[in-house]
Amino acid sequence: MATRIRLQRHGRKGYAFYQVVVSDSRAPRDGKFIERIGSYNPNTNPATIDLNFERALHWLQVGALPTDTARMVLSREGVCLKKHLLEGVKKGAFDEAAAETKFQEWLQKKKMALQDIKNKEREAAKATSKKLFEAENEINIAKATELAKKKAQIAFSAAKKVAEEEAAVAAAEAAEAAEIAEAVEITEAVEITEAVEISAEVSPAEEE
Hints:
With about 210 residues, the chain is of the alpha+beta class. About 70% of the residues lie in helices and about 15% in strands. The model has no long low-confidence stretch (mean pLDDT about 85).
């Protein structure tokens, strides 16, 4: 029986994730499997891989053939490298201690590379957040400026209306005062005229 290490698709449309399984090569991709040895989620950055390292290594050592995508997952987790190093130990190229040292050095470099990716992702998210904040702040300033202009126009219109009302009241009071003054002048003129007429009538009588 030819055994394959492959990815079994799960998830919804547009958001797929995969189970890493060992199955018969004749079985359907998403059908029955022998053992599930991990999961692979490409929707994160970097992609999230949860793998049973020992079981994956075991199946490689007993001849299971990974698909291209599964090989990428195994290589990223160091399973293929570990298998290669163990084969070197069997051939006498180096001992197990040297093989483990080489594997740990690779593992450390891999962790540093992943950390760099995460740091860059974090910095990019911060930069994006900062740009959004600055853009929103500019919009708020523009809105505040426009609101201040509207308030100033309303205040100016209100002050103008008050000034016009006060001017109208003052004009009405002035007109009323002018009418009173004119009436007083007319009354005084009439009184003077009547006094003169009375004086004229009295004067001939006194002469007799």
